[in-house]
Amino acid sequence: MARYIGPKTRIARKFGEAIFGPDKVLSKRNFPPGQHGANRRKKTSEYGIQLNEKQKAKYTYGVLERQFRNLFEKATRTKGITGEVLLQLLETRLDNVVFRLGIAPSRAAARQLVSHKHIVVDGSVVNIPSYSIKPGQIIAVREKSKSLEVIADALSGFNHSKYAWLEWDNSSMSGKFLHLPERTDIPENIKEQLIVELYSK
Questions:
Q1: Which of 49, 70, 124, 163 is most buried per CB count within 10 Å?
Q2: Tally of domains in the chain
Q3: Contact predicate 98/114, CB 8 Å
């Protein structure tokens, strides 16, 4: 399966949530897409609910099935509550951290900035969106990329105190990953226990 590049509103309507950020269409048409979306009254099975939650997490973080499965298996081998560890692993992805720091307006835009070598980690260029950030590492905008309009626009007015596990230095356009976020600090509306139950079958 290739990465989804179709209409984001369609996916947001499928889950009934603005998983990609504010969505004007979703606020007016908060029902599934399709000809009969508004009248659909289909009862979803337990498996369907669990699968839906996994799909929502994958779309939210922009992760493909194999990557997601690998992260889940890593979470099961890591000390802690599997579902929470899974979300922590997703949060440590470089593209997600760039997004959380306000350097990009969306995770998709963050992924592009990373892939195009606009981001450095501890002073070295890293162009792998899935690169896992460790506590203490510094994520910054590459010197020659600091004048990019997309970055300046994203940072303009961004509230850098939103996330307790990140610290931002505006003068150097860099952020520090302080520690792994607690579950209560992660704002995504994902019921991770349903994903654990799905993979445990």
A1: 163
A2: 2
A3: yes
- Looking at the fold, whether 142 and 156 belong to one and the same domain comes out as yes
Tell me the C-alpha distance between 5 and 62, whole Å.
10
On whether both 97 and 174 belong to a single domain, the answer is yes
**102 SS3 class:** coil
Tens digit of each residue's pLDDT (9 = 90 or more) over 44-101: 799 999 999 999 999 999 999 999 999 999 999 999 999 999 999 999 999 999 999 9
Please list the residues that pair with 120 across neighbouring strands: 125, 140
Closest C-alpha to 90, from 119, 59, 116, 118: 59
* Backbone dihedral region for residue 148 (phi beyond 0: left; psi -120 to 50: alpha; all else: beta): beta
Burial of 109 (0-12, 13-18, 19+ CB in 10 A): middle
> Do 122 and 54 belong together in one domain?
no
Give domain status of residue 1, yes or no.
no
pLDDT digits (tens, 9 = 90+) for 121-143: 999 999 999 999 999 999 999 99
pLDDT digits (tens, 9 = 90+) for 145-197: 999 999 999 999 899 999 999 999 999 999 999 999 999 999 999 999 999 99
- Cβ–Cβ < 8 Å for 143, 125: no
Whether residue 108 sits in one domain with residue 75: no
